[in-house]
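Dear colleague,

As promised, here are the two records you asked about, laid out in our usual form so they can be pasted straight into your sheet.

NAME FIELD: protein one
SEQUENCE, THEN STRUCTURE:
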Amino acid sequence: MTAAKPQPPHVELHTDGACSGNPGPGGWAYVLKHGASGRERVASGAEHDTTNNRMELRAVIEGLSVLNKPTTVDLYSDSKYVLDGLKTWIHNWKKKGWKTADKKPVKNQELWMKLDELASRHDIRFHWIKGHNEHPENERCDQLAVEAREALVRAG
């Protein structure tokens, strides 16, 4: 009789991005909840000249980057751009040499390529949540992303 294969760790990754102007200063944030231990890891950051979509992507990239072994990830985001891109669009973009259906270069390609590399290591389950709808972790991520953006703006 063989021993049962150990289950990979499980986390919840909650993400959000915020931008003032599009482009303009923006922030990203994530809350990573470790299923077994209940521990949390929280991070945020900001960029001067960015877009909301780039900040949404950065939040997921940064959250996945801290996972050091294959993990089951329940990804919660209010960004259909990120979720649809990662679930569906990215497969065709790669087949077409990172071109869209109308043969144009994929916007934010370098971020999508990094996200693809990180996502390939994990089993990701996708959960869309409505933004600004009193979802506690989404509201927390939004607040952290806005605070990071505002701190950047104040710092100049």
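NAME FIELD: protein two
SEQUENCE, THEN STRUCTURE:
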Amino acid sequence: MVKFLVDKIRPGRGFAHTFHLSFIALLPPLVWGLVRLDLTGLAVALLLLSKWRMFSVHPRHWINHIRTNAVDIIVGLSILEFIIQSDSGLLQGLWVLVFEAWLLFIKPGSSNLLVTIQALASQTMGLTALFLAFERGSMAFYILAVWIICYFSARHFLGIFEERHGSLISSIWAFLAACLMWVLSHWLLFFGPIAQPAILLSIIGTGLAGLYYLDQSDRLASGVKKQILLAMFALIFIIIIFSDWGDKAV
């Protein structure tokens, strides 16, 4: 089903395929150019319009198409925010190259490893960009945004393994992430430009994804499982201990 939806959105041959690839290759520099011209709104519109093919089929497929493309949209908007926040042309250029690599090599991949990278990139970059773009957002907004990012990232990850309970597991993960966001929103702390909730959720999400990936690949030995869990708890402990809890931001 996923392959059918992707094939419907991304042409596979002929002039349409060539035009599609050309547009993808030009998208990052176009976005960068609009940011340099201080036309951020147009850059956002261009990114969203690049997904117009989601709606070129029967409306009954729209929800599935949005779910399939959510990770790409999250990463695209996140890189746009990173370009905006970059304080030098060189750093902006590096993010443009990252965007090119994402569009041409990472996003089209369908192997288990590449899909895992796509999902983890979506969650990590999405959460990081969220707090960069909305440093003074409301608690309700943060909770909703975290739920959306974590849910679609998890659904994308679990979809490649054809997990029967993918929707339920994704909902549970998104709910837990939203609950953690609710707690941490009372003390919204930053380590440099990165918010504490983004770091903690990225650590937990990456650890859980790694455990699931290895389990599905029949490579989850008891020792490896203990090492991953120990690393997760150690990193979380370090983040919590070295956080300045007196610096209450919200």
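A couple of things worth noting about protein two: The radius of gyration is 19 Å. The chain has two domains: 1-108, 110-250.

Best,
R.
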